[in-house]
Design a protein that fits this description.
Helices cover about 20% and strands about 40% of the residues. Strand 7 and strand 8 form a beta hairpin. The chain is globular and about 45 Å long. The strands form two sheets. A four-stranded mixed beta sheet has the order 1-4-3-2, covered by helices on one side. It has a four-stranded mixed beta sheet with strand order 5-8-7-6, covered by helices on one side. The protein is an alpha/beta fold and about 120 residues long.
Length: about 120
């Protein structure tokens, strides 16, 4: 087997307030804030050495339209995680079910969409 040419190391979210958004995602994912890089970049701790981590980067422009890419979170308690997200300033958008899969679209406090995917499917 040959070495893979690349590995997704971070998913970086552009945002207005990286400290606040990192705090939101830290609570949702149960990960600590790892640190900052300059004044405009905040990283979460990596859950394992080869896992994808999240980072948040300050940008001047606001979010305008639907994300072109988003995070899918595999969860055990759909309603419990929904309540957590809402208590932290996020919002429920819409539930979907298609071809045996169901998921809930949510928004973080800055309007970035992500999905909650219940365990036990796919």
């Amino acid at each position: 087997m040959t070495a893979r040419p690349a590995h997704v190391w971070y998913v970086t979210v552009d945002c207005h307030d990286p400290d606040a958004l990192a705090g939101f995602w830290s609570r949702v994912l149960g990960l600590e804030v790892r640190g900052t890089f300059g004044a405009d970049f905040v990283m979460l701790a990596r859950p394992s050495e080869d896992a994808v981590a999240m980072a948040f980067q300050r940008v001047p422009e606001p979010k305008v339209t639907k994300n072109r890419a988003h995070v899918d979170l595999r969860i055990d308690d759909l309603d419990g995680v929904t309540r957590l997200v809402e208590s932290l300033g996020g919002a429920r958008v819409q539930d979907h079910e298609e071809e045996g899969f169901r998921w809930r679209v949510m928004r973080d406090p800055e309007g970035n969409e992500f999905c909650l995917m219940p365990s036990g499917q796919g």
